[in-house]
Amino acid sequence: MNLASFPSAEAAVGIGLAWLALGAFSLLESERARFVARGVFPLSALVSFALAALALRTLGDPADTLTLPLGLPDLPFHVRLDGLSAFFLCLLGVCSFGITLYASDYFRSESVQKLRLLSLQYHWFLASMTFVLLADDAYMFMVAWEAMALSSYFLVVTEHRQGTIRRAAFIYLLIAHIGALSILLCFGVLHEAGVEAYSFDALRQAQLTPFWASVAFLLALVGFGAKAGMMPLHVWLPDAHPAAPSPVSALMSGVMLKTAIYGLVRVVFDLIGSPMWQWGLLVAGMGATTALFGILYALQQNDLKRLLAYSSVENIGIILVGLGLAMIFFGSGHPEAGALGLIGAFYHCLNHGAYKSLLFLGAGTVLRSTGMRNLNEMGGLIHRMPQVAGYFLVGSLAISALPPLNGFVSEWLMLQTALQAGQLDNGVLRSLVPLLAAMLALAAALTARCFVKAFGIAFLGQPRGVVSEHAHGHGEEDASLFERLGMAWLAVWCLVLGVFPSTVVGLLNQVSLSVAGAGLPPSALEAGVLWLVPSTQARASYGPIVFLLVIAVVVLITYVTVRVCFHGRLRRAPPWDCGFPEQTARMQDSSEGFGQSIRVIFAPIFRIAQRVPNPEDAQPKFELRVEDKHWHGFYLPIARAVEYLSARIGKLQQGRISTYLLYSFVTLIALLVFVR
Q: How far apart are alpha carbons 435 and 432 in whole angstroms?
């Protein structure tokens, strides 16, 4: 099929339907899991590639709309493919291509029946995300949004025989539906009378007062923030992501969380259309707090996948900081600075999709090959899983914002946006924006520490556990062919997005023009491929290609010097042992020890329970548990209050007809008295 010969919206809908068909095709009778793993999943990866190509081709095109003969009578589905939806569809296609390739090998050892269901849910999850990004009316958006929640719920609860996984999936579904209710109320506030009022075109025409516009914004922030993992609505994420199979964790963290960012941008910048700077201050403040909170808790995790999940909370916070800065500048009458913040947020969506998907896939191979997810049981895996270690290192460097990889670019753009605070007329904003930038910089520094811990404890040093000493992958290699191809695809994107940011910023500038009507100044787009200029060359610039060349030259000079001056000789000697002749794995820094200083400095935000061994213990063991204060201070009291009220209200149900007739009589009297 040549997608260029079809209208863009029709081609995008066709791709979504193709995923639905692949999911249904997986249910065909077959006695071999290879039929699904080696047939359906690679074909699905090609569909992902086609989606990415289509979205990239249409990124700067005018909006293409389509009305589908689906839905309810007089309530058809409306589809729209514009710059904003094309960008997020490109993100979906790029990430799902690598993840699906990886999944084709990761799932192949599952039983046939389980693999069929996994494939059905996986592909319907992909299709529902596609239709969320294409929806051009409130009805289709909510149908696709709920389909996305349900399909991802069933993927999370794959190992449903474990009570902790059922609990994690229930909390995820509960908060997802609370968020969906808030989104529905937001659309209700934007709604005006008329049959066509449910379409986004009609919602754009709504004339809202500042009060009702703010109400719609707050409802959107709560609804989409619940799905994105914004604090304090994040509690589902650290449990649900580790509970899901690793390819699903990668898809949820790398892509699904961004659909919430898409929804927030669509409502604030498109449907409402005129963000206030007060909204931006709220979003940026909550984003900075979420980022700092997420990475502090990530530093305290021993479970590798749970660490990555809390890191996703941090990265969502960074994206919200960029969106908040954009709202502040747009609302204050500085559209070019606002466009820079918006582009920085979009860039970080791309970056997080690439490196977090890569990290979850790497963690999945470690879990599958060793059976371990506790960092304190790992160690020395680089010797047995060198390729996985290499890919995980690329993801760790990228998420730590080290140039010339991609994580540095988006965070640098957001810091450059914050430096535009001098343009603001409001003195309070001029003081608060640099504070937000400082919190962002602190979160970035802590992220580097977190992933030094993750990579160092898991892959370096000596094996700490019995299983890690015998770690093995598939056959003689630490990862199978398709697993390596999936991780390599994402690792390449970490490098490409970092080395060619000026090209990416040029594309994202078209998205900003599409959704907000403003872009970067011409001076920022004329610097060429060698330099990234956020505003003007005189103010700031960054040359990633030059940076990469300098690194390559330094490495080459060092290599040649060693080969020529020392003739390539190696001198081996025992390392300094600090006076201990017998080095064991117990002398290596543990996961708890690595986070101890942070735990002491930020002790008030943690709920810490620890057991220190006594000298008399036959087998002394230090135990530490760091729990989320939001769960114990906010959610558990609400749960207890609901249980209390439910128990009291339940007493009304007596099981006696006379009692129910009395209720009906009292209700009738009340209606006669109060209703005219």
A: 5
Q: Could you tell me if 354 and 477 lie in one domain?
A: yes
Closest to 85 in 3D by CA, of 514, 494, 501: 514
Per the structure, the complete domain to which residue 623 belongs is given by 602-674
Query: Other CB atoms closer than 10 Å to residue 584's CB: what's the count?
Result: 9
Residues 393 and 469 in one domain: yes
Question: Does 654 map to a domain?
Answer: yes
Handedness of CA 461, 466, 468, 474 (dihedral sign): positive
pLDDT tens-place string over residues 76-104: 899 999 999 999 999 999 999 999 999 98
Between strands 606-611 and 623-628, the pairing is antiparallel
The answer to whether 312 and 229 have CB atoms below 8 angstroms apart is yes
Do both 344 and 473 map to the same domain? Answer: yes
* 408 and 364 co-located in one domain: yes
pLDDT tens for each residue of 200-230: 888 888 888 899 999 999 999 999 999 999 9
129 in Cβ contact with 72 (< 8 Å): no
- Residues 526, 424, single domain; the answer is yes
Task: Evaluate whether 14 touches 6 at the Cβ level (below 8 Å).
Answer: yes
Are 250 and 279 in contact by the 8 Å Cβ rule? The answer is: no
Asked if 278 and 287 count as a contact pair (C-beta separation under 8 A), the reply is no
